[in-house]
Design goal:
Blueprint lengths: L3 H6 L6 H20 L4 H8 L7 H27 L3 H22 L8 H17 L13 H21 L4 H11 L5 H23 L7 H53 L2
Length: 270
């Protein structure tokens, strides 16, 4: 019989093998998130292997682990790329509010209603990025003055809401929006995306905390693995540059399309 403390930490639910899988998944997710986003595709399924865990507990614990990784990669990018905080910080604050709002909407409206639209959008992104190899090679801002900040905040609000509502691929959506709609190079876009993604994770956590859904022990262990992966991923992305980030981005978007497309098929036709 497990004690209340063991249940709250989540360690009482784990065997040694499951914990090892979760830690490896957390490291890999941190690396992917740091380079281009989409680490939740690895981390969340690993959490669902925990015996007796509910989907809400998995989502909440995933956000707790992720915020450690995105914070680490944000700091690493900031020290090496020096992204423009005048754009990143307002965008992050708006995204935090959007993520909280998206989590609230998710309790009223099922995320599966939006998944077909998301799959279509991802296909468009994949085709756009594949056919335009020079996109994201250099920063050439598309907007100036107030318009620049308004576009940044609209992107933050929409993608923040998506993160709270559905979640997978938030970092990838941020990167492609910053590259295609604002004109940033991939490295600069990834640096800003990490700051905004950190805020969206925080917004979702603010929603989950009062509900007692977090498995604290598992989440903190996952966070440590995420930090290690995030640090390595950010350093590799900065060292290898825009071309490396672009190819990882294309791979992650392709996996997202397959994953969400399969979800749509299962929910509507299986």
């Amino acid at each position: 019989m497990l004690s209340g403390l063991e249940l709250q930490s989540g360690f009482g639910l784990l065997g040694g093998g499951t914990l090892a899988v979760i830690l490896v998944a957390g490291f890999c997710a941190g690396w992917v998130d740091a380079v281009v986003g989409g680490g939740g595709l690895i981390q969340l399924p690993a959490l669902l292997l925990v015996p007796g865990i509910s989907p809400v507990q998995a989502l909440a614990t995933n956000k707790l682990g992720s915020i450690f990784g995105t914070t680490t990669s944000s700091v690493t990018y900031y020290r090496r790329v020096h992204p423009d905080l005048k754009t990143a910080l307002p965008m992050a604050f708006i995204a935090l509010a959007g993520s909280f709002g998206g989590a609230v909407i998710a309790t009223q409206l099922p995320g599966k209603a939006f998944k077909p639209i998301i799959v279509a959008a991802l296909l468009a992104v994949l085709i756009f990025t594949s056919l335009r190899p020079k996109v994201g090679e250099h920063t050439a801002l598309r907007h100036e003055g107030r318009t620049h900040y308004v576009v940044a905040c609209v992107i933050g609000a929409l993608i923040g809401c998506y993160d709270g509502l559905i979640g997978p691929g938030t970092g990838s959506f941020l990167v492609i929006a910053l590259v295609s709609l604002m004109g940033y190079a991939f490295t600069e876009a990834s640096a800003k995306a990490k700051i905004v993604n950190m805020a969206t994770n925080a917004g979702a956590l603010l929603f989950f905390l009062p509900h007692g859904s977090l498995l604290w022990g598992v989440g903190l262990a996952l966070g440590a693995a995420n930090m290690a992966g995030g640090y390595l991923g950010a350093r590799m992305a900065v060292a290898r540059g825009n071309s490396f980030i672009r190819w990882v981005f294309l791979g992650v978007v392709a996996v997202l399309i397959v994953k969400l497309g399969f979800d749509v098929w299962q929910e509507n036709f299986a």
